[in-house]
DNA sequence: CTAGAGACTTAGCACAACTCGT
DNA sequence: ACGAGTTGTGCTAAGTCTCTAG
């Protein structure tokens, strides 16, 4: 099943009728483990008196108890949403009695779960092995499907277990109960002529359908936002790989016409139509700053975040002059996942003047681009180039930046670790462009200190090695024999070795420091044409394992097969 | 054009698994 | 062999974009 062939030049739709497969067979999802009631000695108490909860109410209470040491359980919205949903699961007697969250004591439950997790850590090796074996069995049975002629890995074959919803950022629905998914909620998708997955004994699927226009195997509707969740294939699968390839080919098509498009939107800055000016300025931001498109969101349904088209007046500040630069736009807004975007960018005068115009007579909470949305923008883009949408600019600019940076930063004379540092720096330039941030690792300070200690130790070692070398030189001068000559050689070698080790550590420290709050993974996985990296590795004799781990090599198998050292994005 | 459903990609984080020095 | 620190993986939320109906 590992052998795949791709057309060498252009990715194509496998079928011309829009269907995604002919044959699809799988075992269905793994359901969430059923609720295990608490032992009777673990009690919940209300208003100082212990009280036995009904099974349903107890389960939801344990969700809260498990989260007690997270800061967000102290938030008012979280508590309100939780309590509201919890009460719905109570019996009418419980509901009558439990009316104030502050009077609830979950401590025994919390202690119990802490003890459980300790016990799990302290399990014997055999028991851990047993669990591992069971997981492996589950993976083998449910983790694969047959699509057309290939056995393919499934990405997420487990149904999401129930729990309390925790959105990102300031989410109005945090703390709500994410309910348990039953077989009756689940839609199965497979081919008619396949062996259909069986629902658990005594249950039924909501539906079994045979829709080969879609790629998912299982779906259900989630109760927090009412959106549909899917079980789909792993990125290593044919269907995902071809799609990925296609994405990068579209971005390469953009490369061919991007100068034309840039010229066009610069012209449009002068248009007499407000709508066209807004479109042109937004597109400039998307191109220059790799902003996301910015669809409209329903207010109050999720955290207040924006992208380009949904920017509001309050998200930018205009400075005719700032820090010695003219026409500076200061961006400050929350983007996807409530990650802050903060940037001060000098722009062309004409853009600046347009922004002033767009902001005239508006309140801070008004839309900056009031005549624009993603649908208008994408319709325009579609006319400029086949398959062009706003997000293609992100892919294009990310990939072209990597290629440029690699060209600029790679020094042919440097050794392997130095070259890899260059790669990471090129990758980092992209991550910064795309604003891929992470919380600094909790162990960051300590880990830097450790590394510094290692470096210091290595420096001492080097000084010592150099002293030895000097001694050997002096020896040779005096003795002039073969033995001293050999000794000198070996001391020289030793110095070189330690020098190299020291450099490696210093490179590592630099890399880590620069990476403190930057996440490289997202761009590597989603924005960088893997053929650029494969070509770079081949050109400089870098083993691909230094750049891509096993999972990544599987995902990018198509590119590793395809690209040679002169691949140009 | 608007709203909503649906399908699919992109995202950061928690924790499990592994690695390396002692 | 062990534990601390690092890396990899699973999870699932949060985006983008298309399509359809009114």
TrEMBL record:
Single Gene Ontology MF annotation: DNA binding
Enzyme class: isomerase
Cellular location(s): Nucleus
Record-level GO cellular component terms: chromosome; nucleolus
Keyword hit for DNA-binding: yes
SUPFAM superfamilies: DNA breaking-rejoining enzymes, Eukaryotic DNA topoisomerase I, dispensable insert domain, Eukaryotic DNA topoisomerase I, N-terminal DNA-binding fragment
Enzyme Commission code: 5.6.2.1
Domain DNA topoisomerase I eukaryotic-type: start-end pairs: 164-541
UniProt catalytic activity: ATP-independent breakage of single-stranded DNA, followed by passage and rejoining
Coiled coil: 448-515
Domain of life, per lineage: Eukaryota
Entry-linked SMART domains: TOPEUc
Annotated active site: 527 (o-(3'-phospho-dna)-tyrosine intermediate)
Function, in words: Releases the supercoiling and torsional tension of DNA introduced during the DNA replication and transcription by transiently cleaving and rejoining one strand of the DNA duplex. Introduces a single-strand break via transesterification at the specific target site 5'-[CT]CCTTp site in duplex DNA. The scissile phosphodiester is attacked by the catalytic tyrosine of the enzyme, resulting in the formation of a DNA-(3'-phosphotyrosyl)-enzyme intermediate and the expulsion of a 5'-OH DNA strand. The free DNA strand then undergoes passage around the unbroken strand thus removing DNA supercoils.
Classification via PANTHER family: DNA TOPOISOMERASE 1 (PTHR10290:SF5), DNA TOPOISOMERASE I (PTHR10290)
Family per record: Belongs to the type IB topoisomerase family.
UniProt-recorded name of the protein: DNA topoisomerase I
